[in-house]
Amino acid sequence: MPLIEDGLTQHFTLHKLAQVADESAFFREVGPRIRGVAAGGAGKADRALIEKLPALEIIANFGVGYDGIDVKAAAERGVIVTNTPDVLTDEVADLALGLLLATVRQIPQVDRYLRAGKWLEKPYPLTATLRERKVGILGLGRIGKAIAERCAAFGLDIAYHGRSRQADVPYRYYDNLLAMARDVDVLMVVAPGGAATHHIVNADVLTALGPDGILINVGRGSVVDEKALIAALRDRKILTAGLDVFEDEPRVPAELIAMDHVVLLPHVGSASVYTRNAMGRLVVDNLVSWFEGKGPKTPVAETPWPRK
Ligand code: NDP
């Protein structure tokens, strides 16, 4: 983003790895002087990259999800990792509710129907409803809570699953995802990616969600077993799905694209100018604050500050 580039060049010497022609020469000659990394989007900061930068002190990630960064490798080296929490929470929660409504009431399909001139022939068939639905939120964190507040305003019943029960929330807790899936008919995925959540939404969970069930995923594609999801949608084991994230982005399985009863978005949860600018400013602020000796503004849990 120009906002990030401008912000960084005001304070630092900026090198753009994506534009480097000879990477091995770059790491040999410039690598030893690199003290900070701004990462995000397609830019992964894996162990190999971290090891090539002996003077590295901080990696500032653009985004709240940081599964593209090897935090373990960073922590071992004492490298701080920061992300962009809170500034995108409401935007992503808004999108999640939009996606849920679009999916259950078939808003994109109805729009296509009108444009194709079919309204002139007959009214659009009646759709499923959001009324009287029970929503199970997988990942009642910052965004999950903002989604829950919105669901409550829509008059929906709310439950959640995470690794631990949370004090001070009025929603029903399930320590078992499968048990929650059995009891709800909307499963809202907003958990982070990574090994611990890989494919936890599997064929059994989808079957438990049931033939009237709706899966919404605004968390990470890796949380859902995409092959099992395609099979469940094909065999009508669940009603429909609204997906903002996929396992191998930006590649989306042809089977999903061919299905008319799903709603697919290209990972746009936080993608408004307003929110992306706020995220960009936080990336710059983390780096500036660190190099001014004031510590990171939003370090991730694995690399806490002050150091433990
Ligand atoms: P938080 O860290 O605030 O919340 C994450 C939640 O997930 C916590 O409630 C946590 O609960 C739960 N969780 C973590 N690990 C597990 C696990 N192994 N099993 C079950 N639950 C788990 O993060 P945010 O709410 O700020 O963001 C959530 C995610 O949303 C991000 O990590 C990112 O992947 C995604 N995201 C997607 C965007 C998009 O554009 N679609 C934009 C922004 C974020 P507990 O600790 O109790 O397990």
TrEMBL record:
CDD domains: HPPR (cd12156). Residues 39-300 form the D-isomer specific 2-hydroxyacid dehydrogenase catalytic domain. Keywords: NAD, NADP, Oxidoreductase. Residues 97-269 form the D-isomer specific 2-hydroxyacid dehydrogenase NAD-binding domain. GO terms for cellular component: cytosol. InterPro entries: D-isomer_2-hydroxyacid_DH (IPR050223), D-isomer_2_OHA_DH_cat_dom (IPR006139), D-isomer_DH_NAD-bd (IPR006140), NAD(P)-bd_dom_sf (IPR036291). GO terms for molecular function: glyoxylate reductase (NADPH) activity; hydroxypyruvate reductase [NAD(P)H] activity; NAD binding. Gene3D superfamilies: NAD(P)-binding Rossmann-like Domain (3.40.50.720). Belongs to the D-isomer specific 2-hydroxyacid dehydrogenase family. This is 2-hydroxyacid dehydrogenase. It comes from Chelatococcus daeguensis.
